[in-house]
Specification:
This protein is of the alpha+beta class and 394 residues long. The protein folds into three domains: 4-133, 2-Layer Sandwich (Translation, Eukaryotic Peptide Chain Release Factor Subunit 1, Chain A); 138-267, eRF1 domain 2 (Nucleotidyltransferase, domain 5), CATH 3.30.420; 294-392, Ribosomal protein L30/S12 (60s Ribosomal Protein L30, Chain: A), CATH 3.30.1330. The chain has helices at residues 4-14, 39-50, 55-67, 126-134, 170-178, 194-226, 237-246, 249-252, 269-298, 307-313, 341-345, 356-366, 376-384; strands at 21-27, 74-79, 84-89, 103-105, 110-113, 116-121, 138-143, 148-154, 157-160, 186-187, 190-191, 230-234, 255-259, 302-304, 317-323, 329-333, 336-338, 352-355, 370-374, 389-392. It has a six-stranded antiparallel sheet, with helices on one face. β7 (138-143) and β8 (148-154) form a beta hairpin. The longest helix has 33 residues, at 194-226. It is globular, with a radius of gyration of 26 Å. The two termini are 39 Å apart. The relative contact order is 0.10.
């Protein structure tokens, strides 16, 4: 699990790579047939040969890829003459699967093909930094039969926050579990009444308020320390609903789903993640659809289609939204990138055709445009609107 502090450490350590360095992103997902027999090692070999990576460095990388067991969907690898850094990721990265035939950009010493993205020169960090900065970090509050637990989910991995609620009153939780709403005043099938019921109700209400307020206070601390951007609640509805009512507004706004408990107590982190995965996927795709809807509502402070490319190069784009499967090609001419060849011919006689995926990093960085990729329904809608969208600064 890459924690909040680990993200900072990774970024700082990669700045120390000596130039020229190899930056290599590989799709190594073992579930894909085209990765059988470590075929990704051959893609890496071809990429390094096309970029004229020094033989000694290329052999060191190939030795690792051919013999190291790496359980991941994507591998980000960075190497210079002295260091070799590996970052196995349980998610796919944008730009790694972008074109069907290899494209080598000699100007940037970069190769892009289906399943491999390679660069030799200055460290090329955009795909990794995109994942570290743009993927949501989820906090999961799980109500077990015996205790409350917190899990952290980031980049397809899960880890339990050990003893997250250790300081809380376990006796209070036991009483609340036994006297859950809906059955507090019906003991043994006999309804209780009178002064005894009133006193019991007042005591239980006091326990409940102290308990859930303490839980909310602890969760605030974990959100701040770990940088949770979204929250999920798992457990019996009567408890998750009550807990939600005690959360401060800024935390309530982070809650994206409430789910029932797993059927057995003491569920492992892996079991929790398996239950969460389809929900997280749905949450992410819905958020991307909402993003496009918000851009449509923001017009004229938003743009769609080829117009976006011109707005980027005017420095007007704050957020640049692109499809995950980035297959668009551009025409380069006299320092400009144009969407259509006819446009480019108005500037020069022989415009150079390049995949947007190759020039995207320079455009985004050069004009300070933050990039967001969308998938699923949002990607389909975006393609219908010309394949790109933007939120404008002015």
């Amino acid at each position: 699990m890459i924690g909040k502090e680990e993200v900072r450490r990774i970024k700082e350590s990669l700045k120390d790579l000596k130039t020229p360095a190899l930056s290599l992103y590989l799709d190594i997902n073992p579930a894909k047939p085209d990765n059988a027999g470590r075929a990704y090692a051959l893609r890496a070999k071809d990429a390094m040969k096309a970029l004229a990576v020094p033989e000694a460095l290329a052999e060191k990388v190939l030795e690792l890829l051919q013999h190291e067991v790496i359980q991941a969907k994507t591998l980000a690898l960075f190497a210079d003459q002295e260091r070799l850094e590996l970052f196995p990721l349980q998610v796919e990265l944008p730009l790694v699967r972008a074109v069907k035939t290899a494209f080598v950009d000699e100007k940037t010493s970069r190769l892009l093909t289906d399943g491999a993205l390679a660069h030799y020169g200055e460290p090329f960090l955009l795909p990794l930094v995109y994942a570290l900065d743009e993927y949501e970090r989820y906090g999961v509050v799980y109500v077990d039969q015996e205790r409350w637990r917190v899990f952290e989910v980031f980049l397809g991995e899960i880890a339990e926050v050990k003893d997250a609620f250790l300081a809380l009153d376990t006796e209070a939780w036991r009483r609340l579990s036994l006297d859950a709403p809906g059955r507090r005043f019906n003991l043994g099938g006999i309804a209780r009444g009178g002064a005894g019921q009133d006193l019991f109700a007042k005591r239980l209400a006091a326990w409940e308020e102290r308990f859930y307020k303490a839980l909310a206070h602890e969760l605030v601390r974990h959100v701040e320390e770990r940088g949770f951007t979204r929250l999920l609640l798992m457990g019996p509805e009567e408890h998750t609903k009550l807990f939600l009512g005690y959360l401060p507004k800024r935390l309530k706004e982070k809650v994206v789903a409430e789910l029932p408990s797993l059927p057995h107590p003491g569920a492992s982190p892996g079991e929790v993640l398996k239950r969460l995965e389809p929900v997280l996927e749905e949450v992410e795709r819905q958020a991307e659809v909402r993003l496009l809807e918000e851009l449509e509502e923001a017009y004229p402070k938003a743009a769609f289609g080829p117009e976006v490319l011109a707005r980027v190069q005017e420095g007007r784009v704050e957020l640049w939204v692109l499809p995950w499967h980035l297959e668009r090609e551009l025409y380069a001419c006299d320092g400009l990138y144009l969407a259509e060849e006819a446009q480019a011919l108005a500037y020069c006689q022989n415009p150079e055709k390049k995949p947007l995926a190759v020039v995207l990093p320079e455009l985004a960085a050069g004009y300070a445009a933050r990039v967001e990729f969308v998938r699923g329904e949002a990607e389909r809608r975006l393609l219908e609107r010309g394949g790109m969208a933007a939120l404008l600064r002015w």
